Structure formats: C-alpha cells, structure tokens
C-alpha cells in the first residue's frame, strides 16, 4: 500500500517524480505529495486526493511552479522524493500526506509501511520537546532521524541506520536531508524498493514501473538493506552495517505495457489481453504434440513437488479464488490432498505443517503482506515453498524455494483479471506436471489435455463475442442493490470470484455461494427483485445446476445464466443468458471468467464508478 518514488541526478526532478506517482497510483490514491530539494532548499507540495489533484495544485502555482521557480533562482532541481498514499495512521488529509518533515524542516521522508512502535518513540520525542503536526507514524520516524543526527553528529545515512535499529514494523523509506543535498537514502523491511541505475542518475520506487522509461538496470533491495546514493555513487549495506555488493539485473518490462492502449480503463484492456497473457504464461512450458510439460523454475526442486503428501495453497482475494479452483483439478488429476487457506487466517493460527507438505503461495504482486507473512511462517515450520507471482523480483518470489512466474505483464487495474487466468494456467501446468511425472495420466490423455490448453487463448477470444449480450444485462441490472452468484464444482470458485469483481468495482452487494448450499440459507433472499447469476455450463454438475435454477425460478428470482454455446435447455430456463464456448470442466475458469469480469466492468461503468481505482482499495496490500 502506498507508492514511493525518488530521483537524484541530472534531470529536472519534478517531471520524473510526478510521472512516477502516476505509475504507482494503483498502490494507493487518497493523498499524494512531493518534496524537491535543490541547493539546501526544500519545496514541499501535498494534497488530499488523487495524483491528478496534486499535479493540478502544483502546476497552478504560477511563478512558483517548480520548474519555473528554480529556473528563476538559477537552480536546477536534481533530487526529490514523492508519495501516493493509502491511509493507515491518520485519515487522508493534506497534513497526513507524505513527505513528512522533521521539526526543524531539515529532513523529509516518504514511507510505505507501518512503524508499529511509533507511539513509544513519539512519547520519548515529545518529552524532548518535539511537536507533531500530523497523525502519522512517518512523522515520528522523521523526527527520530533528526534527533539522532543532531545528537550523534552523524551523516544522514548513519542517522537513518541508527533510527531503523530502534524501529519495529515494515517499511520502505526514502529520506532527504537539507544539509546533504547530494544524498538520498533508501531502506526497506517488508515493503518493496527497487533502485534504477542510470548514467550518473538514480531512481528509486516501490516497483520498476516509474523507472523503465529511463533505464532497464535495476536493483531489488533485500529486507534490512539500505542504499546510500551519494555524489553519483551507490553503496548498499544492511542496517546492521554489513556492506553488500549491489546485484544489478535487467528488467524486461516494456513501457507499452503500462499504457491504456486506447481502452478507457486498464481493467478493460487487461480483460481483453487474456488470450495473450494466458498464452504467454504457457509459452515454452508445454509441448502438446509430445504431451510434455517443462517447468524450469521448479525443475531443481521437483522431488519436493512429487513427494508432497499434501499441498497447502496460501493466498488472498482473487489469488485465493485461483487457488480454490486449482484445488479441484489438483485433487482430480494428482490425487494429492489440497487445502486452500486465506493467508490472513493461516498466519494467525498455529497451523500444523508436516515434513512432506508443499506450500504454494499465489500472489499477483508478490508483496501482499498477509501472504508474505504466512509464507514466512510456513517456511519457519519447515515447509517447502513454491511461489506463483506475476511481479518479477517481488518479495514472495524471492523468499520461495522455487516458483513460476505468470507472464501476464503488469496488471494496473486494481481489480485482478488477467492475473487470475494466468494463475490458473500456471497452476494447471504444475498439476499436469505432477500427474504426468507420477504416471497418473498416460501420454494420450496428456496430449489431449495439452491440446485443449493450447487452444484456450482462441476460446477466450470467442468468449468476448458475448460482450453485446453482457452489456444488455449490465444495463438492466445497473441499479440493483444485491446479487447472488452460484456455481457448483469448478463453477463454485468462479462464483466467488465473479461476486468479488462486482462488489469491488461497482459497490453492489454480491454474494458468491456453492449452488448446493443455496437451500441452506441464501434461498431465503430470493424474491422477484433478486438477480441470481448461475454458472451453468454443460459440465459434470450441469443437471444439478439446472435443478437449482428451477428452484430459483419457482420463487420468482431472475436468472442470469452463463451457459455453454448452443445449450437451449438452460437458455429456456434463464431470463438472460450469456454464452461461452464449450470446454472440459478443468478449463472452465478461462472462458467463464470473461463474462464475469465484463459484467462487473460494464455495470461499474454505467454506474460511473472509478473502475481502475475503486474506493478504499489499493492494488498491492502491503499492510496486515
Ligand atoms: O497481489 P495479490 O495477488 O497477492 O493480491 C491479493 C488480493 O489483494 C487481490 O487479489 C484483490 O483481491 C484484488 N483486488 C481482487 O480483484
């Protein structure tokens, strides 16, 4: 949660920072701010609201607009830090926005994370006479650094290091000090920080998106590491003062992936990218003619996968739903008992982990705090961890023993769409790999499944053909207050996911249920005002789903059904039907997800909701 960005070098910093904030806005968007430092003078701008509001505010400063102001002073702004916030400590407001300054105004800091012991530090500082203008834990850290710098008479990087030794919590911070204008300090525990290495210039950000238009050379800081960028040179050490060699990697992220490409929203662009993102997630990993699956990322640890007596999948939100869907095909094809747990629950229990348990952590961002903490806990208890992440170099991908990336490309819309189907694709490959290595599937069956899988991108294209029908349904139900989504077997996790998509972007209350559970409670909600969406494909649960549809119809409920193309029986029962191409049960998620995502999108669009940045949410949930 929260995005941080920093720059030091030869460019005019304002432009780099504001663009960086726009790229990172998916991480939080309730307030934003920038501090520019040039020749010992700080200019700080902060605003409640989205980055666009901060930008307007700054650019309407007349002669005080930073580039003009500094030109007039004969100065060139060379360094600055900026922040886009998802509030934790202190409501969204100008005063609580970052950067936060220390009492004397000497030190500016931006912070993504939570300082857990900030109250005791604040009390100690108040006794020394420090005053606080905001409600944030970040201002406490700014003053702690100032206090140490003043009393210990040390440089800014050493003051930061000593302060961090007193801090409990998670953070990625960027610090500037007025009296050392050629220095920027970055440090992290728990929250991500990436350094971009340019030609005599450095960029720092929560992810690589603000960096890639300037350089493809990046360094992912590890937990407890800090970097001092000083006079054009970079030094990395730990907060325990051990020097580290910087490991510079080349990022493959491309700038076009970060633009909307003519779509009104990133979410819509990402929905329509799925034939490509599913294809990319499988590319080079399957050979349908030979019936083989090759998974480089887990090759060296494949024995762990094959010896597993139980698979535990840990994830949150949409990634949890991908895990739930995978449970069905893992148990069907590998016969390995598979449990799926909310990471946020797993970590607060005392879970029992056996030696032969394999933990699969699924996370688009690879930074979700609860998933990361659950993975750490499972690792401590001796489990082998496989990660499935979309963001290269992310914390979960680095902490896992082995893993596979989903090659969905950057997902910017807060509502997860292409990452979900890419996760299903990768999980399916993992499942087929186990089943084939254990000889549970013969060559013929492998060839058949992989051939169907190879054709999935085309089937997804066909699922888009229902968009006109979906728009009609969206128009009809745009003012509805409640929705029920029902599915059985492979359709059940998809019902949960469809309901999540609708509620998070349209703010309509939606419940996903296993359709067999309907008669145990939810059916009481059904009346002539209640739309019930069924995932009613012609799969193994078809007859039972038809019966459930009849039960709803008998109670005057309105039925929207996602049906297999050409199925006249389900079509007759439903009030509205949306067709998807036929697939086997295990592949249902790829096609059925499309109408679920598009329905949520079009309803939210008709309701005028902020689709890519729904209220109260953030893309990467790095608080627990
Ligand atoms: O990055 P992750 O996959 O770990 O994120 C988990 C959830 O926060 C995420 O899937 C969330 O539920 C989405 N906004 C749903 O669309």
Automatic annotation (TrEMBL):
It catalyses: D-fructose 6-phosphate + L-glutamine = D-glucosamine 6-phosphate + L-glutamate. The keyword Cytoplasm applies. GO terms for molecular function: carbohydrate derivative binding; glutamine-fructose-6-phosphate transaminase (isomerizing) activity. Keywords: Aminotransferase, Cytoplasm, Glutamine amidotransferase, Repeat, Transferase. PROSITE patterns: GATASE_TYPE_2 (PS51278), SIS (PS51464). Its main location: cytoplasm. Residues 2-232 form the Glutamine amidotransferase type-2 domain. Residues 301-440, 473-614 form the SIS domain. One of its GO terms (cellular component) is cytosol. The active site is at residues 2, 619. It comes from the Bacteria. It is an enzyme of class 2 (transferase). Pfam families: GATase_6, SIS. It is found in: Cytoplasm. The keyword Transit peptide does not apply. Its EC number is 2.6.1.16. GO terms for biological process: amino sugar biosynthetic process; carbohydrate metabolic process; fructose 6-phosphate metabolic process; protein N-linked glycosylation; UDP-N-acetylglucosamine metabolic process. HAMAP family: GlmS. Catalyzes the first step in hexosamine metabolism, converting fructose-6P into glucosamine-6P using glutamine as a nitrogen source. PANTHER family: GLUCOSAMINE--FRUCTOSE-6-PHOSPHATE AMINOTRANSFERASE, ISOMERIZING, GLUTAMINE--FRUCTOSE-6-PHOSPHATE TRANSAMINASE (ISOMERIZING). Homodimer. This is Glutamine--fructose-6-phosphate aminotransferase [isomerizing]. It comes from Candidatus Nomurabacteria bacterium RIFCSPLOWO2_12_FULL_41_10.
